[in-house]
Amino acid sequence: MHELSLCQNAVEIIEQQARQNGAKRVTGVWLEVGALACVEESALRFGFDIACRETLAQGCTLHILHKPAQAWCWNCSQTVEIERHDECPLCHCPTLHIERSDGVQIKSIEVE
């Protein structure tokens, strides 16, 4: 379950940023998950809850933002947004080149 290691890394960064800014507690975190990041949302939520234990982020609200991936279609020569790596939404051709899928990123942290 790579979601747990992603969460542990994210919580380390979140806690570091919170401490640097004098926060007493993290109340909310917004994570952006790319469509092709191969991350299961329920596993991400579970792993995040575990990783937050005994940190400034314990009990905070996790907000997950989904971001489509960008791909180049070799058939219609267009940059398109996709949710799965299957076919172009414009011409339905399967010849896509993934340009950006963005993985998992911390977008925002809310603190007290």
Automatic annotation (TrEMBL):
UniProt cross-references to Gene3D superfamilies, sorted A to Z: 3.30.2320.80
Pfam families xref list: HypA
Residues at which Zn(2+) binds: 73, 76, 88, 91
Signal peptide residues on this chain, from the entry's feature table: none
Binding site for Ni(2+): 2
Statement: the UniProt record of this protein carries the keyword Repeat: no
Keywords: Metal-binding, Nickel, Zinc
InterPro entries linked to this entry: HypA/HybF
Family named by the database record: Belongs to the HypA/HybF family.
Free-text function comment from the UniProt entry: Involved in the maturation of [NiFe] hydrogenases. Required for nickel insertion into the metal center of the hydrogenase.
Protein name as annotated: Hydrogenase maturation factor HypA
Gene name, Swiss-Prot/TrEMBL: hypA
